[in-house]
Design a protein that fits this description.
The chain is α+β, with helices and mostly antiparallel strands. It is built from 6 helices and 3 strands, in the order H-H-H-E-E-H-H-E-H. It has helices at residues 2-6, 10-17, 24-37, 81-91, 93-97, 112-134, and strands at residues 41-46, 66-72, 104-110. The chain is elongated, with a radius of gyration of 21 Å. Residues 117-129 have a biased composition (Polar residues).
Amino acid sequence: MLRRYALGFSSVGRQFSTMSSSTPMEDVIRAKITAALNPQTLEIYNDSHLHAHHKAMQGSTSRETHFRLVITSDAFQSKRQPARHRMVYALLRDEMALEYGIHALQLRTLTPDEEVQQQQKKAGETQASKDVAQKPLSTDET
């Protein structure tokens, strides 16, 4: 099953390497994940600037080495987190193998139902904190 996600996408990286983009690695990530997982939500955060001082990054001219991804897809249905992460890693293995390619990925992989549950939970927490903030202070009138 994972093999299906890993194969057939290596040409995407070559396709983008000839384009002039200020974010070629992000473009490849977006293209591969979109093609393979058809995500309802895909958020890509480039956190490379937070890690530029690390020893492993010395000598690197790449400004795209550390990414945080939030992916919501039906393709994750009935799969546990490790399997979902393996799917994404398999898609991006060529980019991770490059000397100054992707050095680190932080993944948040959700099904559409899980995303809705998290949004509802967050909305409930926000409402609860508003209720607490609006609650009048009790005063003793005796």
